Amino acid sequence: MNALMIVDIQNDFTPEGSLAVPHGDEIIPIVNELQKSFELVIATQDWHPRNHKSFASNHQERTPFETTMLQGLEQILWPDHCVQGSSGAKFHASLHMEKIEAIFRKGMNPEIDSYSGFYDNGHKKSTGLSGYLKERKVKNVYICGLAADFCVFYTAKDALREGFGTYVIEDATRAIDQNGFLKAKYEIKALGGKTIKSKDILGPM
Ligand code: VGL
Ligand code: ZN
Question: Residue 91 in contact with residue 12, Cβ under 8 Å?
Fold first, then answer.
């Protein structure tokens, strides 16, 4: 079984949002079309408490995009984003939700960030996603969504680590930083993952 994993297509990551991914909204029609080709579709949702330590606003005299240490890991300090219950945390209104069977939330622990849909950044706590996919007999995961250089990248790395055939759909993701995405693609391929285009699934449109 193949699963489509839709990562964090939330208002705060689209151009109106507080942590806008350039052109992030442009992938949504492609993601909606892709959903029709999969038997199983799941989504992840960044879901932070207001006091989350990945927010620059929760540190004294720090501004967004500076780095700090958190739980022994280097941490980029982000603008406040995807605060639980806020409109920024909602899925983008144009994303089709009907086929999404399960939503895995992440980033709830204020002490550690969680880019991957599988584990927090310290690999201490699982979201249950890996067990869910295994129970559903999933062998391959096709990953799309936002942002290519953070949550899509970390989700792909964990998918490989968990033994799934891992495909990142390049034109169904957008990066915060283009260079970051180039590095991410290189690393995903080095770990045995593949990067593909939506037309490889949909055929020429
Ligand atoms: C993300 C930074 C902080 C993402 C989430 O979804 O890529 N990036 N939180
Ligand atoms: Zn976040």
Answer: no
Tell me the CA–centroid distance for residue 53 and ligand 2, in Å.
10
How far is the centre of ligand 1, averaged over its atoms, from the C-alpha of 164 (Å)?
A: 22
Interface confidence (ipTM) of the complex: 0.98
Tell me, yes or no, whether 64 lies in a domain: no
Q: Tell me whether strands 67-70 and 73-76 are parallel, antiparallel or unpaired.
A: antiparallel
User: pTM for the whole thing?
Assistant: 0.97
Pocket test for ligand 1, best of 13, 105, 109 (most atoms within 8 A of CB): 13
* CATH assignment at residue 101: 3.40.50.850
User: 167 lies in a domain?
Assistant: yes
158 lines ligand 1 (CB under 6 A): no
Distance 117 CA to ligand 2 centre (A): 11
Please give the Cα distance from 110 to 24 (Å, whole number): 26
Q: What is the total count of domains within the chain? A: 1
Q: Is 30 a member of any domain? A: yes
Q: What are phi and psi of 17, to 5 degrees?
A: -85, 175
Note the pLDDT tens digit of each residue in 161-199.
999 999 999 999 999 999 999 999 999 999 999 999 999
Domain range for 179 = 2-49+83-202
26 located within any domain:
yes
Lookup: tokens for 25: 């909204």
Q: Which residues surround ligand 2, an ion (CB under 5 A)?
A: 46, 107
